[in-house]
Amino acid sequence: MQHPRHRVLIHSAGARKVFVGRVRYRRPGSFRRRFELSAQAPEDDLQVWVDQDLCTGDGLCVQYAPEVFEFDIDGLAYVKDPGGELLQSPGARTAVPGRLVLEVIDSAKECPGDCIHVVRGSDGVEVAGPEAA
């Protein structure tokens, strides 16, 4: 079982916010971008999909967000719908639950196959993955 880490953010105005969740410091400013993305998530309703042609089957996504990703019998990762049903059609998208936004974005950024795409549902712009800006 993983234990959440607590982080306190102190803004220039002196306001304090407690952030609960897994925080990984890969490069300067990455936490801020992820925090901003998580703040946008309820408004933008993020969706995620996996390109199985590029999937290497390493399983980082399944470890980070088992409620969203799952392996099939072929050893490749697929997304699941909110009911837990595996979506096996190519390019199938599913909504990212608000509480798992950071985990899904982390899995897209750290995927060795660059096969996880996180897009905004409103306009289809990729916010995490190989084609993200």
UniProtKB/TrEMBL annotation:
Record organism: Paractinoplanes ovalisporus
Alphabetical keyword list: 4Fe-4S, Electron transport, Iron, Iron-sulfur, Metal-binding, Transport
Xref: InterPro entries: 3Fe4S_ferredoxin, 4Fe4S_Fe-S-bd, ET_Ferredoxin
Superkingdom as given in the UniProt entry: Bacteria
Necessary cofactors: [4Fe-4S] cluster
Official protein name in the record: Ferredoxin
Domain 4Fe-4S ferredoxin-type per the UniProt entry, residue ranges: 46-74
Known role: Ferredoxins are iron-sulfur proteins that transfer electrons in a wide variety of metabolic reactions.
Pfam families cross-referenced by the UniProt entry: Fer4_15
